[in-house]
Write a structure and sequence with these properties.
This protein has about 625 residues and is of the alpha/beta class. It has helices at about 10-20, 35-45, 60-75, 100-115, 125-160, 175-180, 185-205, 230-245, 255-270, 305-315, 330-335, 355-365, 380-395, 400-410, 420-425, 450-460, 460-475, 525-555, 555-565, 605, and strands spanning about 5, 30-35, 50-55, 80-85, 165, 210-215, 280, 295-300, 375, 430-435, 480-485, 495-500, 510-515, 565-570, 580-585, 615-620. The protein folds into three domains: about 5-110 and about 125-280, NAD(P)-binding Rossmann-like Domain (Rossmann fold), CATH 3.40.50.720; about 295-355 and about 490-620, no CATH class; about 380-480, no CATH class. The strands form three sheets. The chain has a seven-stranded parallel sheet with strand order 3-2-1-4-5-6-7, with helices on both faces. The chain is globular. This is Cell division cycle protein 123.
C-alpha cells in the first residue's frame, strides 16, 4: 500500500493533497500539522477514512523524529512519499519589494519615535523587522524542510517508491523574476530558491540509491490564504498578473487547489530517478496540466489529402502504407535510429502486460462503469470455438445443432457466480477477450444481448480466436476469459487517440488520432489547437493513473514490462465529459501496434522519447 506524509496538511494545498490521496482506500495518508485537534475535526467533517493526523513542530528536530516514529508504526517501517508542503508566507512582505519593505519599516520607526527628522539608515534597529521576516521564512521554508527530510529519510530508504517532494514556487525562477521584474515577496522567494538548491544537493547524494528529490511549483493557486489578502495585496497581485499576461497570454485565472494538486500528483507519480527526471520543475500558471513535462508540446495538423494519397498509393500496390501506421519493423531498422543503450533493448514485446485482466478496473473507473462480468471459457470449449472459426472461414455457417451444443458447453455462471441467463435480461454488452476486442467479427462492434450473440462474436473473429489460442499456449492450465462490459454509446472510434509511452522515460512522447484513415473531428484549426492540448493534458493524468495502478494492482512481470518495454494506450474524447481510457497496447517498432499518423522508423527519436518535445498529430 503506497504511503504518503504531507506537511502543512491542515489547510490549502496540504489538505487538498490529503483529500485527493485519501480517495484511494489503499493509500496510507498521514498529515503533519501544528494543531491536531483542528485538523482532526476537518478530516472528520469531510468524511475522510484512511487519514492519520500527527502533530509536529517543523522547527524542532526531536518533534519531527517523534512524528517519524509514529509514521513508522502506521506504515510498518517504510515511507514511499514525503511531500514537504508546509511553508511560511509572510503577511509583511508578500506584496512588497526589499526596497519597499525597508521604507515601510523606517516609516513605522518614525511613527513610533515621533521623530520627524529621522532619516533612513542601515542601523540594526531599522533592519530588525526585515531580518525577522527573512529568518522566519528560512526557519520554515529551508531549515524546517531539511530537518523534516533528516527525520524521515530513514523511512524513505525503506520505502518502495522513495520520493521526496518539496512544493516550491515559480517565483523562485531567476529568469521569470528578471524577465517580468517580479520584485515582491522577497523573503518567501529567496527561501524557496534556497530550498531548491537544498533539494538539488540531496538529489546529488541519493539518486544513486534510487531516491528522487524533486522541487515542484504548483502554479498560482486560489487557496484560503489568497482569500485573506488585503486590498493592497490584491492590487499588487493584479499588477503581477498583468505582467504575467505578457509571458503567458492564455493565463485567465489562478488554479483551484483541486486542479493544482491533481497536476502535481500526476508529475510526482510519473517522475523517477531511472528516467533522469530533474530535481526542479515549475508548473506555469493555468497551463499546469499541459506543461507539466519539462518538454515542449506541439500540435501538428496534417492535411487529410496527404494521408488519403498515401492510402490510395498503397492500395494500388496491394501493400500497406509506408508513411503511416507502420508495424513489425526489424531490429536492424529501429536500432539504426535508436541505439540499444541505457537499458533499452529492441525485442518484439509480449502482450502479457496489456491483458485486460490487469487494467479493467482502471478502464472502468475512467468510463464511469461500476459493474462488468468475467466468464472463464473451459479449454475444450475454447478449442472447439477455434475449430469453428476455420469452418466459418470456409463459408459454412453454424448449424442449429452445433449452436445448441455450444450453448450447452458454455459456463452457467460468471467468475463471481452470476447466472449467465440473468446477464441477458435486456442489458446491452460489449465483448472483449483478454488481449483484444472482437471488432473483426461478422457483427463488428455491435451490441451483445444474448448468449447466441456472444458465441457469434467469438467464433467469427480471427482476433478473438488468435488471442484465445495464445492463452492456451502460454499456460497449459489457464482458462481464457471473456469480458462483458456495459455497452458505451459514446464510444465513437473517430474520437479515439493513441498515446505513446516509451521505455524508461515515464512520460508521454506522442499522441495521434486512432482512426487515421479519416479526418479527425476538429472543424477548424483554432479550436483544434486547444482541444488537442486538452487531450494531452488528460492523457498525462491517465498515464499517471496507469503507473499508479500498475504499482498497486499488477504483478512484477507487468510492472517490469511497462517500464522496460514501454506501452501505448488508447483514449476516447467523447463529445462531452471527461476523456476515457479504452485499452492498453504494446509499444515499439517491432510490435504489431500501429503507429497511426506517425511512422515507427522515421519518427523513432520522437516516439522513443529522445527528443525534448511531445508532438500531437491529427489529420484535418
Amino acid at each position: 500500500m503506497p504511503s504518503y506524509v504531507i506537511t502543512g496538511a491542515s489547510r490549502g494545498l496540504g489538505f487538498e493533497f490529503v483529500r485527493q490521496l485519501s480517495q484511494n482506500p489503499e493509500n496510507v495518508v498521514i498529515g503533519l500539522v501544528r494543531n491536531r485537534a483542528a485538523a482532526d475535526s476537518k478530516v472528520q467533517a469531510q468524511g475522510l477514512k484512511n487519514v492519520h493526523i500527527v502533530e509536529v513542530d517543523y522547527t524542532d528536530l526531536p518533534s519531527l523524529k517523534k512524528a517519524a516514529e509514529k509514521v513508522k508504526d502506521l506504515t510498518g517501517g517504510g515511507l514511499d512519499y514525503l511531500i514537504n508542503n508546509a511553508a511560511q508566507v509572510s503577511y509583511i512582505s508578500s506584496h512588497k519589494s526589499l526596497v519597499d519593505l525597508y521604507a515601510i519599516l523606517v516609516l513605522e520607526l518614525k511613527i513610533l519615535s515621533r521623530d520627524s527628522n529621522m532619516e533612513p539608515n542601515n542601523s540594526d534597529d531599522d533592519f530588525s523587522t526585515m531580518e525577522k521576516d527573512l529568518r522566519d521564512s528560512f526557519d520554515i521554508n529551508v531549515i524546517g524542510v531539511i530537518k523534516t527530510i533528516n527525520a524521515f529519510l530513514p523511512l524513505i530508504k525503506k520505502g518502495t517508491v522513495k520520493k521526496v517532494i518539496t512544493i516550491s514556487s515559480g517565483m523562485a525562477d531567476l529568469d521569470l523574476i528578471n524577465d517580468l521584474e517580479v520584485d515582491v515577496s522577497a523573503p518567501y522567494t529567496i527561501s524557496k530558491g534556497a530550498v531548491n538548491i537544498a533539494m538539488a544537493k540531496y538529489n546529488a547524494v541519493f539518486k544513486k540509491e534510487g531516491i528522487l528529490f524533486l522541487s515542484i511549483s504548483p502554479g498560482v493557486v486560489a487557496t484560503e490564504r489568497a482569500s485573506e489578502v488585503s486590498e493592497e495585496e490584491k492590487q499588487a497581485f493584479g499588477a503581477l498578473a498583468a505582467k504575467f499576461a505578457t509571458y503567458a497570454p492564455d493565463f485567465k485565472r489562478p488554479l483551484t487547489p483541486e486542479e493544482s494538486v491533481k497536476a502535481v500528483l500526476s508529475v510526482v507519480h510519473k517522475a523517477s530517478v531511472q528516467a533522469g527526471d530533474r530535481w526542479w520543475l515549475w508548473l506555469p500558471i493555468d497551463k499546469v496540466n499541459i506543461t507539466m513535462e519539462s518538454v515542449k508540446v506541439s500540435v501538428k495538423l496534417l492535411p487529410f489529402k496527404n494521408v488519403q494519397e498515401a492510402i490510395i498509393a498503397a492500395r494500388k500496390d496491394w501493400s500497406d502504407t509506408i508513411d503511416f501506421n507502420t508495424t513489425h519493423h526489424t531490429r536492424d531498422e529501429i536500432s539504426a535510429m535508436v541505439p540499444e543503450e541505457n537499458g533499452l533493448r529492441h525485442v518484439k514485446p509480449s502482450f502479457y502486460s496489456t491483458r485486460l485482466s490487469h487494467w479493467l478496473e482502471l478502464i472502468a473507473s475512467t468510463q464511469g462503469v461500476s459493474a462488468w462480468h468475467v466468464i472463464e471459457i473451459p479449454r475444450y470449449l475454447a478449442k472447439e470455438l477455434a475449430s469453428l472459426y476455420l469452418t466459418w472461414c470456409s463459408g459454412r455457417g453454424l448449424g442449429d445443432d452445433t449452436r445448441e451444443e455450444l450453448k450447452s458447453m458454455f459456463p452457467k455462471t460468471t467468475t463471481t457466480g452470476v447466472k449467465i441467463d440473468d446477464i441477458f435480461q435486456g442489458d446491452k454488452w460489449f465483448l472483449r477477450v483478454d488481449y483484444c476486442s472482437a471488432k473483426d467479427s461478422e457483427a463488428g462492434h455491435s451490441v451483445v444481448e444474448s448468449l447466441d450473440d456472444l458465441i457469434d462474436r467469438l467464433y467469427t473473429s480471427m482476433r478473438a480466436i488468435r488471442a484465445i489460442a495464445d492463452i492456451l499456449e502460454e499456460d497449459p492450465h489457464e482458462k481464457p476469459k471473456v469480458f462483458l462490459i456495459p455497452f458505451n454509446t459514446a464510444m465513437d472510434r473517430s474520437r479515439e487517440c493513441r498515446v505513446f509511452c516509451p521505455p524508461h522515460k515515464n512520460r508521454v512522447s506522442a499522441i495521434s488520432q486512432y482512426r487515421w484513415t479519416e479526418p479527425f473531428t476538429f472543424r477548424d484549426a483554432e479550436p483544434a489547437q486547444q482541444e488537442a492540448q486538452d487531450i494531452y493534458s488528460a492523457a498525462c493524468v491517465i498515464h499517471s493513473q496507469i503507473l499508479e495502478h500498475a504499482e498497486r494492482k499488477t504483478d512484477v512481470e507487468t510492472r517490469k514490462s511497462i517500464q522496460d518495454d514501454g506501452f501505448t494506450f488508447d483514449v476516447l474524447k467523447p463529445a462531452s465529459g471527461d476523456i476515457q481510457l479504452v485499452e492498453i497496447n504494446p509499444f515499439g517498432a517491432m510490435s504489431g501496434c500501429g503507429s497511426c499518423l506517425f511512422q515507427w522508423i522515421r519518427d523513432a527519436k520522437l516516439l522513443y522519447g529522445l527528443k525534448e518535445q511531445v508532438e500531437l498529430r491529427f489529420a484535418v
